[in-house]
Amino acid sequence: MGKVVSAFAQSHVMFNDKGVEEQAANVFNGFKEIGEKLRQSKPDVIVIISSDHMFNMMSDVQAPISVAVGDTHLPFGDLAIPVEPFKGQREFAEAFVRFAAEEGFDLTKYEEEDYRPDHGVCIPTMFCNPLGDIPTVIINLNINMDPIPSPQRSYALGEVLRKYITEARPEGERIAVIGAGGISHWLMIEGDGQINEEWDEEIIQTFAQGKADTLLDLTVNDIIKIGGNGGVEIISWLAMAATVPGAKGRKVFYEPIYPWKTGMGGVEMTV
Amino acid sequence: MAKLQAPPVPTRVNRMVNDLTKNRNSARELLQEGGFPALFKKYELSDAEIAAFDKAAEGGLGKIGVPPMYQMGLLSMMNPDAHNFLNVSCFLERHAVEVKQSATPVSRQGE
Q1: Which residues from B are below 8 Å from A when comparing CB atoms?
Q2: DSSP of A44-86, one letter per residue?
Q3: Average pLDDT of B78-101?
Q4: Interface predicted TM-score (ipTM) of this complex, two decimals
């Protein structure tokens, strides 16, 4: 059986640092620290649970939950992210899709020709897998469609991922899991530019205290009201937390960066 | 229950963005050669839809059913300041030195 050897929750964006140099540097340092911790855990596979920003899952075809099964991932290059390929892990990804189907999740598969990861995946990858040599499996929770996968459903997906790792993977396989997105941000909707610092800190503490499952009563609309339409991305944090149930953790960083219109945070789970 | 965020719908503007993103129907070439007016003509946008582009920074595109992520993408294409802001270039030098060059390949060989 395999094992989750490290798990993290983190924001997944960076913008120009002009005027917010100190805060941006703190975010950079936080991402860097998470990356170093992840590599120290010596994973055989990284699973990044994140969201696409309508670079792949557009208004014409909307997959609620999808898995990138390609042998290689080529970044889309949004935000001027370097277009440098990184390894996929087809066998892990395809077997997970089959396993999940037996557990009540019909997942959409994306081949590399049809999926180029955007910043939601590539910002974490830049820091956790800068050489692109650690095979990576990408799971996207679609936060732009209607309906958006619920917190409960996202957590349940994480439970299936944990079961897959611990029951179906080869003995000794080491898996690092990242839940990427959030924290609060309102983008191009009423309230554009708001950050809910109090909620952000509450979310960070909830995960650090190993109590992510206390958030499962929230609906997507609850989260949008309190954390903005971008705040919904914490469903990826919930999926991550379900792979290490009950694990506590520690806040790595938090910065509310108003010019970026988002609360930026990171948590390392104690695995 | 009322939706707090309008779902993506198949409007003419959204079809235009889909084609730009996936580089279908020569959309990118049209943008490069004739700018947004050429795209507006090809996708037969109404006067009201075209007028919404003038108020893109104030959320005008949201009022004609353009989802937030598409609005961000369009802003980046239309406005050099937005393009420079929605950009990680300022971090790349530091990233190359502190993260990329100092990273060693992760290998469990020999353990």
Answers
A1: 1, 3-5, 7-10, 14-15, 17-18, 21-22, 59, 61-62, 67-73, 84-92, 94-95, 98-100, 103, 105-106, 108, 111
A2: SEEEEEE---SSSS-SSS--SEEEE--SEE----GGG-----E
A3: 94
A4: 0.91
